[in-house]
Amino acid sequence: MLAGSLVAIVTPMLADGGLDFPRLKSLIDWHVQEGTDGIVVVGTTGESPTVDFDEHHRVISSSVEYAAGRVPIIAGAGGNSTKEAIELTQYAKKAGANYVLSVVPYYNKPMQEGLYQHFKAIAESADIPVILYNVPSRTVADLQNDTVVRLSKVKNIVGIKESTSNIERVTELMKRVPKDFLVFSGNDDAALAYVQLGAHGVISVTANVAPRLMHDMIAAARAGDSRKAIEINNRLLGLHKNLFLETNPIPVKWALAKMGRIAEGIRLPLTPFAAPHHDTLATALREAGCIA
Question: Which residues form the active site (predicted)?
């Protein structure tokens, strides 16, 4: 069963915005070494809105190749066009991804029935496990619990990345869905609370820079060792907060470049991390032991 700390991995880019596949391979190798439990590629943190279809395919297939079965690959395959999301899902299946992550359609603001039909069509298009992704702060549309419960009965829909940080909401959801339905926190600052309430883990931005600590925190929480989990979470609080000083993934890509793991490449309309924030994020990196 998929569980633990799953990294929402960045898509490394060169200074000119070109994709940097050698760095992607080195990041995947590092995450395997550090105990990351799964790797989500071409999601929000992977700048999915700015990669074209061919690049999206290449990142998925290359990640599957680089992981070589050592860690599950969860392919970002969502979209606001059902047809395009189906095409990406079918490609992910063909490429050998273990799961797909399918975001709530953004901008066109579908009704709940539209969301149900959208995800049902995706799940029926390819025999690959689908994890729903609800992030209303970005999509405007909000996948309500009633709709998630309906979708949990659809073949191939196996879980959700829930990014509202609403404790009451996620508690009620976990009470209503089947016990084997996977629930992941989509926000690092809520991850510990979600897991202590019974969620399976987190799809994490913080894990990009502190993979071992995120793995150990979630493992401790799942094992019932709250003291250890809280101690680690307290060490990571600066990252949970300051990796969002600007729009994700602007700060985390700067942090990884500061750590020497990627080049400082990012695509418009995202811009380089503003200099006034550098010292604040560098302090959080030092507190977590990511840099000296």
Answer: 133, 161
Question: Residue 36 in contact with residue 74, Cβ under 8 Å?
Answer: no
Separation between Cα atoms, residue 289 and residue 213, nearest integer Å: 10
Q: Which residues fall in the annotated binding site for pyruvate?
A: 45, 203
Per DSSP, the three-state class of 91 is: helix
Q: Name the residues annotated as catalytic.
A: 133, 161
The packing angle between helices 82-95 and 53-67, to 10°, is 30
In a domain, 276, yes or no: no
Answer whether 202's CB lies under 8 Å from 6's CB. Answer: yes
Closest CA to 123 of 162, 170, 157: 157
Q: How big is the chain, counted in residues? A: 292
pTM: 0.97
Q: Are 280 and 242 in contact (CB under 8 A)?
A: yes
What is the CATH number for 42? 3.20.20.70
How would you classify residue 263: left for phi > 0, otherwise alpha for psi between -120 and 50, otherwise beta? beta
230-277 tens-digit pLDDT: 999 999 999 999 999 999 999 999 999 999 999 999 999 999 999 999
Question: How far is residue 277 CA from its own chain's centroid?
Answer: 24
65-101 per-position pLDDT tens digit: 999 999 999 999 999 999 999 999 999 999 999 999 9
284 domain-assigned:
no
Query: Can you give the residue range of the structural domain that contains 43?
Result: 4-225
Q: Is the dihedral of CA 85, 167, 215, 237 positive or negative?
A: positive
Q: Among the residues of 144-262, which ranges form H helices?
A: 145-151, 167-176, 188-196, 211-222, 226-242, 250-258
Asked if the structure places residue 124 within a domain, the reply is: yes
Annotated binding site: 45, 203
